[in-house]
């Protein structure tokens, strides 16, 4: 039995990753494969898994196809994540990754996902709106499936904030653009630099430009804007402070989900009332630690503490007017 959730993550468009290892496979031929693995994926699923690893009681919702829900259910059971996914007819989208270890390359084939019915969407909205008061934070994560309008997150942010919840948003494209243009912004926004540029419709070529863009979102009602920049680190901005957090060098297994781990770290830092510098260290340690593992898993606490101590946190360059 999982503890009463304090955080809800929302993944409207999860994915099931099917990785097939086939050394030397050839197009158009009959090939032998050495093995295959199914991994439940999707940004909010990853955020929930990482929070659960850290010991935060968490629930996950979104839309899940009934036909291939088993790997998700297994993950939730193993991590102790409360499963509040709405089941819908059909299969969750599958991403096939054909890995050739001899060449060291991967071929991706992404199958189409579910098209969401009005009924399923209403069910998801009802789930979001009927959360108990103990759920202090809600993370809206990832892309929106066909059938869900681009303003979905923007609307839910306003409603959830109206209920007094702390809302984190990690999305891209039109969904991010709509949410950033809305009247009510989420308290936490974590775009990567490319997502932020796309949402704002302009390139951000200097640190000063990134800082100015983040400060603009703060002026418009966000409380913490974290602009992640891959290996370089992340810029974290609040109304009072602006910091740059540089990760230590780590041995990378897979950088997939680095940003999701950062979101989980920032949410846990919020729950613990950490300072911005403390949040920067924790979130960067979560990211750097998670990429040393395949899948959304945190390393043991001692390893995370060691990583956090190695994160380089500096004041971001002040704006020159
Ligand atoms: N190669 C790396 N080495 C060390 N740390 C890394 C590396 N790549 C990413 N990170 C850490 O992870 C954080 C988030 O990475 P990134 O900006 O790539 O997120 P993202 O694009 O949102 O990723 P995703 O959406 O795939 O989870 C970075 O700020 C950094 O601290
Ligand atoms: Mg991301």
Automatic annotation (TrEMBL):
Keyword Nucleotide-binding: yes
Catalytic activity reported: beta-D-fructose 1-phosphate + ATP = beta-D-fructose 1,6-bisphosphate + ADP + H(+)
Pfam family, one: PfkB
Enzyme Commission number(s) of this protein: 2.7.1.56
InterPro entries the UniProt entry points to: 1-PFruKinase, Carboh/pur_kinase_PfkB_CS, PfkB_dom, Ribokinase-like, Tagatose/fructose_Pkinase
Enzyme class: transferase
Carbohydrate kinase PfkB domain span: 28-298
Keywords: ATP-binding, Kinase, Nucleotide-binding, Transferase
Keyword Signal assigned: no
MF annotations from Gene Ontology: 1-phosphofructokinase activity; ATP binding
CDD domains: FruK_PfkB_like
GO BP annotations listed: carbohydrate catabolic process; small molecule metabolic process
GO cellular component term, pick one: cytosol
Family indicated by similarity: Belongs to the carbohydrate kinase PfkB family.
Protein's job: Catalyzes the ATP-dependent phosphorylation of fructose-l-phosphate to fructose-l,6-bisphosphate.
UniProt protein name: 1-phosphofructokinase
